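Sequence in, structure out. Go.
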Amino acid sequence: MKLCLIKEAQTLLTLSGVQEITSVFFGGGTPSLAHPDTIKMFMEDIKSRVSVQPTAEISMEINPTSLELEKLKDFQDAGINRVSIGIQTLDRYGLNLLGRDHSVEESLRCLEMAKCLFPSSVSVDLIYGWPGQTLSSWLSELQEMLHLCDYHISLYQLTLERGTDLFKQIHQGHLSPVEQQVSEDMYLQAVELLNNNGFERYEVSNFAKQKCYSHHNISYWTGQAYIGVGPGAHGRFKPVNKDHREARIQTLEPNDWMWEVEKFGHATRKIKQLNPQNQLEELLSVGLRTKKGVSSREWSNVEPASCMKDVLFDDPKVQLFVQKGLLKFNDRGLCASDEGMNVLDSLLPDLLNAVEKDYFRKRTAV
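Output:
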């Protein structure tokens, strides 16, 4: 696995023509189960091939189990300088319901140790909206976390995945899902609580104190290129000598992935050519989730021949969103207001439709 990760990274770096790396993120699944030497060798090889900024964010997702806790210092020595801890909940029943392997006590120990090793660079992930959770219990838990956490919190509404025990229990009627209105109240009151305690909502699900943002995520939200290495990884970049950016997905099954890397140098299973319409739709979908929104420069990097305001403001529904104060056009570009961020999912379809209509109109004119 270690050598295959390095080999695939080498191949994709060559294909992409990347000269400088600003961030590296070890995520997806449980990367902290890997041996720290794997991380160290991977980073050393990357640094031998391209420039890695001295201030580059090298982050990792970790689960707060005792086994992974023991390796935190070794991961730091291997080059990791930021961690995101999948605490999920401080409720014992909730952890069991969500199928997590760690205990509340392990979460607290891991968090304290991480704060010592990575000051101002520790994020915690929390899940809300699981069966049995109430608005009151959720806010109490979040209040407790405010006394424990570092400078970054990510909040995610529970997503039911087919095949999981939790999905089956709800589908069979053994558990009742949280009502949608309650789940919405959980989010909105969490936003208010975090804001009142100095946490800025800089993205729909992400909150930070003192601008301790996740820089890797910001690069993704602003439409920058990134390379996906490893089983099931996703990437977005424009290959050397190609006209369009590509969305690339690596083979998911680890054994198949290793076989393909050994044979072909990489295990890209699916490639989709992204035309300007695709790229603008992606940019709006992820960029408007952020407080800053989408800048005119980011838009023109994709489609220099069109003006974002002209394209979007041509749609009556988008005009209505602006009149209602849900969206704001300014000198920088387009962003959602606080209220708009709360209902962003209901705004995006009309924004994307405006892009599609403009793209179709131009193709028809040609």
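Check: Residues 13 and 227 are 8 Å apart (CA to CA). The chain has a mean pLDDT of 95.
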